[in-house]
Write a structure and sequence with these properties.
The protein has a single domain, classed as 3-Layer(aba) Sandwich (Undecaprenyl pyrophosphate synthetase), CATH 3.40.1180. Helices cover 45% and strands 14% of the residues. It is built from seven helices and five strands. α2 runs parallel beside α3 and α2 crosses α7. Bound molecules: farnesyl diphosphate. Farnesyl diphosphate (FPP) binds next to α1, α2, β1 and α3.
Length: 222
């Protein structure tokens, strides 16, 4: 969800105002995905690297997340949205974690849209955590060399029960993966829009899906 800082800067506002506006785009995008029949939406809300930002921005982002969870959990519950989270969630502040756990538990029975928030997330760390788990299982004698296949690795990632993404949308014209779902994006189609995240609307989402629907996916074949 890139471009919040630039959106604020363009208006002479503090960066946090951009994140605040970005939270509104989250609501819009979730609604748009439900309308379009998208089954899984994963939002990169806070990377492991984002902890390096000034303390006031980090605190502000955590408060926005808390506010989002306070205000939106009931709506998610009513509208069939199941909330999940991936990342090193134990690194999140306790009040944030508490609300997150509550929302995840409350919405666990929903299945219309699986909304996953990537929080304190890094694709490389996810792979490190998977390898560590595999090493532990190997040491316990539960894994043989021939068991290790791409499917086996996928099953040890945070996203073990989520299919690999069909489409990655990058806002604000960024042309890098920024440590997001590194393993899972192997065959994902990429849509880059110059729109800053706070300006990203349902119409932009539908345009991205339309662009995706015209792609020919060959997975390395012909
Ligand atoms: C990247 O833009 C965005 C973030 C680090 C935070 C994204 C968070 C939200 C949209 C709000 C809270 C989340 C939820 C789920 C309610 P940037 O700050 O790097 O922008 P810039 O590249 O223009 O500086």
């Amino acid at each position: 969800m890139d471009g919040n800082g630039r959106w604020a800067q363009n208006r002479g506002l503090p960066r946090l105002k951009g994140h605040e506006q970005g939270s509104k785009s989250v609501g819009e995008c979730v609604e748009g995905c439900r309308d379009a029949g998208v089954k899984y939406l994963t939002l990169y809300a806070f990377s492991s690297e984002n902890w390096k930002r000034p303390a006031a921005e980090v605190t502000g982002l955590m408060m926005l997340l808390e506010r989002f969870l306070d205000q939106k959990t009931n709506e998610m519950l009513e509208k069939g949205v199941q909330l999940r989270a991936i990342g090193r969630l134990d690194e999140l502040p306790a009040p944030c974690r508490k609300r997150l756990d509550r929302a995840i538990t409350a919405t666990a029975g929903n299945d219309r849209l699986i909304l996953t928030l990537a929080l304190s997330y890094s694709g490389r760390t996810e792979i490190v955590d998977a390898v560590r788990e595999i090493v532990r299982e190997t040491a316990a004698g539960r894994v043989r060399e021939e068991d290790v296949t791409p499917e086996f690795i996928s099953a040890h990632l945070y996203t073990s029960d989520v299919p690999d993404p069909d489409l990655l949308i990058r806002t604000s014209g960024e042309l890098r993966l920024s440590n997001f779902l590194l393993w899972q994006l192997s065959y994902t189609e990429i849509h880059v829009t110059p729109k800053l995240w706070p300006d990203f609307t349902k119409a932009d989402l539908f345009a991205a899906i339309d662009d995706y629907s015209k792609r020919q996916r060959r997975y390395g074949g012909i």
